[in-house]
Amino acid sequence: MKKDSEFYQLIYYICKEKNINLKQASFGYITELEKNGIKKHMVDECLELNSSSSSKIASDKFATYSVLVQNFVPTIKYNMVFNPKTRADYENKDMLKAMIWFDEYEGKVILKANNSSEGKDVFFIDNKEKLKEKIIEEFKNGNNSVSICPFYNINFEYRTIFLDGEILCYYKKQKPYVIGNNKDSLRELISKLDINEFYENLDLNYVPKQGEKVEIFWKHNLSQGAIATLEIDDKIKEKLKNIAISAGKAIGIRFASIDIAELDTGELLVIEINSVVCMNKFSKQVKNGLEIEKNIFSKAIDKMFD
Fold first, then answer.
1. Distance of alpha carbon 258 from alpha carbon 76, whole angstroms
2. Is the pTM of this model over 0.85?
3. Per-residue pLDDT for 90 more than 60?
4. Which of 31, 69, 143, 152 could form a disulfide with 42 if both were Cys (CB 3.0 to 4.6 A apart)?
């Protein structure tokens, strides 16, 4: 990690306040934190808190799903498809299963690389041939496995920041949208956003009316244009707290972000658990976001030295 990166600067200022010395190794990939003769490490942006097993579970979407289901945590359904060239010992009829799942889920599925993050290698598919082609493409790109999920009608996604059984922060992620001004076309409005994906069937020449809100994509990733807000109903927060704590404890993780979907039915389901907590987009969108991020990582660093 470069010393001039925003995240390194955040860690640097936290450590300076706590009289923690920093050194880098392996071209900046590893940062050594030393206090009172005790040394801890940060690998890229991953703090020395989580066990190897919990990190591996969190980095695999199907593994996370399997452990959560086993522990009765409400979660989005995942089905595993293995690459026959690299995982032939597991299954050899997975493409047939994928087609069966596609029909079972009424012709609308989400395909994900099992180790994907920030919305990358995540695809909405409503065509059986396209599903087959995309699975083959993902395998050619080096993925050993992918997951197929039903397509859920998700109103919002929530992110909770979990540290040793507590929730330090909750925020809601809204799908990316533009607001019309009765002058610019959707193409012009979208071009002003930091986003490179949008609904294929959008009429980009359409000029939205003044104040008209137009959703432009189905993903809730801040890195792909979604909007963060801290405005969450207290009753929802309590439900999120219970689910997130149960999920974190189920996989034995100490520090993580836990994403939870709110379906159009009102049901709350865990989407995934991230063992590397990333808040750079959040801190820029939300009032006092940088202070919130700093407070969270300050507490996480304290836990490293406990």
1. 13
2. yes
3. no
4. 31
